[in-house]
Write a structure and sequence with these properties.
about 350 residues, 6-stranded mixed sheet, single chain, 8 helices, 5-stranded mixed barrel, alpha+beta
Length: about 350
């Protein structure tokens, strides 16, 4: 196990800053994820950590040892890191055990020790009975576990995983997510996992770094990211939230705020000061209720239904607030409303952000 530290790391291709002044700490034994939309820089950042790219600026350290800075660049093979890619990169003519042993042979590990490490790695991924099979006789999930076993056999202090489940079907992805959690728990190895799939990151990681346009937007636990997004990008990306402008009118104590939205006063949570703010609204924050009467109670917004679809636990409705026709929100209903219906929206547990556009 080892701590991974990045300080002001940058990488430019042409005129594009793909990784822009990124600082990040991954504590020893953590399962961390780099999450963001395609093109946000997460895979390039992983390649910089692995030594497959050279940073233009900044420092990368493994424990107390610098592996890249202005004066030092340690080659990938000398960093001692493990990597698991989307492609399994298994030798088709070798058995499973021979594939797992390949890196150990390159490092000239004695045969007896090599056999022990291979056996332990295969046991860790539940493939002890498959050592003599060829990769072509395995399922996609089994081949991915062989790739992970090959990595674990080297006993790396940090394992880097670049969207390793992207090529698997949804059922196998769920199975492999459980396997990754178990393996991390049992080995205690530091994992850094790149994905654009937020449900995957939320299910696997202890800490998630959300990236956009080469920068880290927020680093937090999955629950913190979901309930307390730091900015509009995180609020819109995590949970596919909608971000709408509000006026913060007053504090009601603690993080409870009174805000004005679409001409109505509602309560929400947040740390924004009085003035312009942004409200993050997700499907579970909005429940369809009867439309409010004039001068009705707080926390109920007048709206109309634009579209409805069934989603197993009820109905997801696309709704538009009165006076905000350009903003389409997602709301939950237990019975199906009809498109065009006038409704009320009860707002529960929504989060208010500072409006960065207003310099707040």
């Amino acid at each position: 196990m080892a701590r991974l530290g990045l300080e002001a790391v940058s990488k430019t291709f042409g005129k594009t800053a793909v990784v822009d002044d990124v600082s990040l700490e991954v504590e020893s034994g953590t399962f961390a994820a780099l999450l963001g939309p395609s093109g946000c820089g997460k895979t390039t950042l992983l390649r910089l950590i692995a030594g497959l790219e050279t940073p233009d600026a900044g420092r990368i350290a493994l424990g107390e040892r610098a592996v890249a800075d202005g004066a030092v660049f340690v080659e990938p093979e000398d960093r001692g890191l493990g990597m698991v890619f989307q492609s399994y990169a298994l030798w088709p003519h070798m058995t499973v055990a021979e594939n797992v042993a390949f890196g150990l042979r390159v490092r000239r590990i004695p045969a007896a020790e090599r056999r022990r490490l291979v056996a332990e790695a295969l046991a860790a991924v539940d493939l002890s009975a498959y050592g003599e099979r060829k990769p072509g006789a395995l399922s996609g999930g089994q081949r991915q576990r062989v790739a992970l076993a090959r990595c674990l056999a080297l006993r790396p202090p940090v394992v880097l995983l670049d969207e390793p489940l992207a090529n698997l079907d949804p059922h196998l992805r769920g199975t492999m997510q459980r396997a990754f959690r178990r393996i991390h728990r049992e080995t205690g190895t530091t994992f850094l996992y790149v994905t654009h799939d937020q449900s995957e990151a939320m299910a696997l990681a202890d800490r998630i770094a959300v990236m956009d346009r080469g920068r880290v937007q927020q680093v937090a636990s999955p629950m913190e990211l979901y309930r307390r997004p730091a900015n509009a990008m995180v609020a819109g990306f995590i949970g596919h939230g909608s971000v709408v402008p509000v006026d913060v009118l007053d504090s009601e104590g603690g993080e409870r705020l009174l805000v004005a939205l679409a001409g109505r006063r509602i309560r929400a949570n947040g740390v924004a000061g009085k003035g312009a703010g942004l409200l993050c609204l997700r499907r579970e924050n909005l429940t369809i209720v009867p439309p409010p009467a004039d001068g009705a109670e707080r926390d109920i917004l007048p709206a109309r239904v634009a579209d409805v679809r069934y989603q197993g636990d009820g109905f997801a409705a696309e709704v538009v607030l009165d006076g905000m026709d350009a903003t389409v929100l997602q709301a939950h209903a237990r019975t199906a409303p009809m498109p065009g219906d006038a409704i009320g929206l009860r707002v529960d547990d929504a989060w208010v952000l500072k409006d960065e556009r207003m310099g707040r």
